[in-house]
From TrEMBL:
<protein>
    <submittedName>
        <fullName>Polyhydroxyalkanoate depolymerase</fullName>
    </submittedName>
</protein>
<dbReference type="InterPro" id="IPR029058">
    <property type="entry name" value="AB_hydrolase_fold"/>
</dbReference>
<dbReference type="InterPro" id="IPR009656">
    <property type="entry name" value="PHB_depo_C"/>
</dbReference>
<feature type="domain" description="PHB de-polymerase C-terminal">
    <location>
        <begin position="207"/>
        <end position="408"/>
    </location>
</feature>
<dbReference type="InterPro" id="IPR051321">
    <property type="entry name" value="PHA/PHB_synthase"/>
</dbReference>
<dbReference type="Pfam" id="PF06850">
    <property type="entry name" value="PHB_depo_C"/>
</dbReference>
<dbReference type="InterPro" id="IPR010915">
    <property type="entry name" value="PHB_depoly_PhaZ"/>
</dbReference>
<feature type="region of interest" description="Disordered">
    <location>
        <begin position="415"/>
        <end position="437"/>
    </location>
</feature>
Length: 437
């Protein structure tokens, strides 16, 4: 009961702040205050609008908002999000571009389960859709999952990825972003032994903690300082009475959000101050840069306690992936068994979440993969978010990833006939080669 009360107290504080914002906005917007030309009322109304919206977003799952894309035939094609595999803790969804011919590039984008919804990868999906058929792992909010559905830890997460890869088939290309990178690597290794014909063709790992000890960050330092007992006491709570998952032990999204914001408190405070001033001056917009970012950033989801704790204990503290000691249901998962999957790692030079060196460690673990099928890329001057959703991704990394997929499209697919023929994208590298010829 104690942890339920703590969870409901957080929700009460959030709800109260939302109500205060709504009240301030409504009160300061009465026409009568126009007779008193004092800037206080405009500032109060602006503060209320920004505050109400910000606290309301924290419990709303964002929409994908990808309604159509332009294809090579010169027409706009409608995009329909359809659920392919539906499981209690996550679904495999497909972005079905209606009326478009089947694409040779088939991409499984593995979204992180780290406090935000899969829609955090909205711009990543939108950038890939014109050139590929895209599937995404859509993880569910733990507060909405009844206790009767059981546990969900890193082993269950890995088995979910195994099932999704099997559904996709051996000609798919997996791109794992941030947190799921080590578990996507483990899932591929699991398939290498259990069902080799279901392995993906390529595996791209972006900014993931394969070896957290390779380069220290604030995240890894926190993991070393705190014991598992302390961590469980500090952050684990039971879902309150308001949700279907009442009683389930979780790491609350609101608590995760507080830690995210505390890492860059000055930057966030300045952003909100500037937004309030722009609203007060009549320069605000419903879909400006501030709202586009914070509508997604503030929308958080709960993680199951067992998933969060097992991630810290086994991936960060125990280094089970880094030392190739990971097990699933008591069965060792040997990463060296991966032999036919091309592997690429992507890191950001200024990544303060998964610092350079943590992700590229995957290449050393893949001893069974020929060097010709391994690639690595360090994006200069790029932070964590930029390597999968910012300008660095759009202008530099995305073309390199698609080029990597194309280069390995010639690799034979186990259990299938001739490899697929892929029309390559126009990358900077290809353009230079064409000019030289």
């Amino acid at each position: 009961m104690k942890s339920i009360m703590s969870y409901d107290l957080m929700e009460t504080v959030r709800n109260t702040n939302e109500w205060m914002g709504a009240s301030a906005r409504a009160m300061a917007s009465y026409p009568v205050w126009g007779l008193a030309p004092h800037p206080m009322f405009k500032i109060m109304s602006a503060w209320g609008r920004v505050t109400e919206r910000s606290f309301a977003r924290m419990v709303i799952k964002p929409d994908w908002g990808i309604h159509s894309i332009a294809a090579e035939d010169g027409r706009d094609h409608l995009v329909e999000v359809e659920t392919v595999v539906d499981k209690p803790f996550g679904s495999l969804i497909h972005f079905n571009v209606q009326g478009r011919a089947p694409m040779e590039r088939r991409i499984l984008l593995v979204a992180p389960m780290s406090g935000h919804y899969a829609t955090l990868l909205r711009s990543t999906v939108a950038s890939l859709l014109p050139d590929a058929d895209v599937w995404v792992t859509d993880w569910h909010n733990a507060r909405d999952i009844p206790v009767s559905e059981g546990k969900f830890d890193v082993e269950d997460y890995t088995l979910y990825l195994v099932d999704f890869m099997k559904k996709m088939g051996p000609d798919c290309n997996v791109i794992a972003v941030c947190q799921p990178a080590p578990l996507a690597l483990a899932a591929t290794a699991y398939l290498a032994e259990e069902d080799p014909t279901a392995q993906p063709r390529t595996l791209t790992l972006i900014g993931g903690p394969i070896d957290p000890d390779a380069a220290a960050t604030e995240v890894t330092d926190f993991g070393r300082r705190v014991t598992m007992g302390q961590l469980e006491q500090m952050v684990i709570q039971r879902v309150g009475f308001k949700y279907q998952g009442a009683g389930r032990l979780v790491y609350p999204g609101l608590m995760q959000l507080a830690s995210f914001i505390s890492m860059n408190m000055d930057k966030h405070a300045q952003a909100f101050q500037e937004k309030i001033w722009s609203e007060a001056n009549g320069e605000g917009s419903e879909h400006d840069k501030h709202y586009r970012f914070y509508d997604e950033y503030l929308a958080v989801m709960d993680m199951t306690a067992e998933f969060y704790l097992s991630t810290v204990e086994r991936i960060f503290k125990g280094l089970e992936i880094a030392q190739n000691r990971f097990t699933v249901a008591g069965k060792p998962v040997d990463i060296s068994k991966i032999t036919t999957v091309a592997v690429k790692t992507v890191e950001g030079e200024k990544d303060d979440i998964s610092a350079p060196g943590q992700c590229v460690a995957a290449l050393d673990l893949c001893t069974g993969v020929p060097d010709s099928m391994k690639q690595q890329h360090l994006e200069p001057d790029a932070g964590h978010y930029g390597i999968f959703a910012g300008s660095h991704w759009r202008n530099n990394i995305r073309p390199l990833v698609l080029e990597f997929i194309d280069e390995n499209a010639a690799n034979p697919v186990p259990g299938k006939g001739k490899p697929a023929t892929v029309t390559p994208i126009r990358t900077k590298k290809a353009a230079k080669a064409a000019e030289a010829s």
